[in-house]
Amino acid sequence: MRVVIVECKRIISKTVLWCFLGFVIFVSVCHVKTNVNNENISALISADYEEKTLEELSEDDMGSFVILLNLVITALILPLFGRDSNVQMEELVRSARFGQKRLDFSRILSAYLLATLFYVCSVAIYFIVVMLPLGIDMVNFLAGYVGLVFMVSVALMVTIILKNLLASASLIAIFYVMLIVINQLYVYEINHWFANFMPVRMAQFRHFYTENELYCIMGRSVPCLDWSIAVSLFLSVIFLVIVILVLCKGKDI
Question: Which of 78, 168, 65 is nearest to 115 (CA)?
Fold first, then answer.
């Protein structure tokens, strides 16, 4: 546990914490100003929104917030497996008995702990500032968190395989942009078999309830939300297993 704490402190400085807190508060306040003004209040009671509830309207903003949040948190945990040539502490730890396994395990654990802590705290702040008057569904909270776990697993796998921080960040950025583009296309086949399990579309909560999409699994109809969470978690476990195998073998795939 001591190594986990050291690894967390290594990448999360006070400056990073204040910047991250500022980001969360800034986005929350922006969404409040967007929602709570005379024009939007008039729109809420007009015929244009007669089929939407306040909770559905609030989910739009929270979805965009979760997408940004997942991307920022993923970027923050990338340096965990980055190598600094100026610091030889990693080589010293790895040369000790059980040092390599302990360091790798601590960094993996640190990635998920930091991601969880940042996500829970950020959503809590957002809930207090924005969502408290409108309401929030905890299932949506879970879907957003599962999307974050997926991105953390992908980030760990890519960073460990490539062993280059810049290349890893570029690949993850390209992957995230691709998911955003796919989410804008609204192609049923792509969404049904791929995008629904990815973090960007999982953060767009409303489509889980309005599109009434189902999956036929072993002769049973499973709601899109439930199946998306299950598949995304399964993929995250696969990526984590790949990470552990690569670290154990100590060589590239």
Answer: 78
Long-range contacts of 33-42 (CB under 8 A, 24+ apart): 34/61, 35/61, 35/130
Backbone φ and ψ of 175, nearest 5°: -60, -40
Q: Which helix (H) or strand (E) holds 240?
A: helix 224-249
Residue type, 18: W
Locate 91 and state its tokens.
């080589």
d(CA 50, CA 206): 16
3-state secondary structure of 24: helix
CA–CA separation, 24 vs 122, rounded Å? 6
Report pLDDT digits (tens) over 206-233: 777 777 788 998 889 999 889 999 999 9
pTM of the predicted protein model:
0.79
222, β-bridge pairs: 215
CA–CA gap between residue 242 and residue 156 (Å, rounded): 10
Q: How many residues are given for the chain?
A: 253
Rounded to whole angstroms, how far apart are CA atoms 194 and 47? 35
User: Which residues, 6+ apart, have CB-to-CB distance to 39 below 8 Å?
Assistant: none
Torsion-angle region of residue 163: left (phi > 0), alpha (psi -120 to 50) or beta?
Answer: left
Dump pLDDT digits (tens) for 133-188: 555 567 778 888 999 999 999 999 998 888 888 888 889 989 998 998 888 888 88
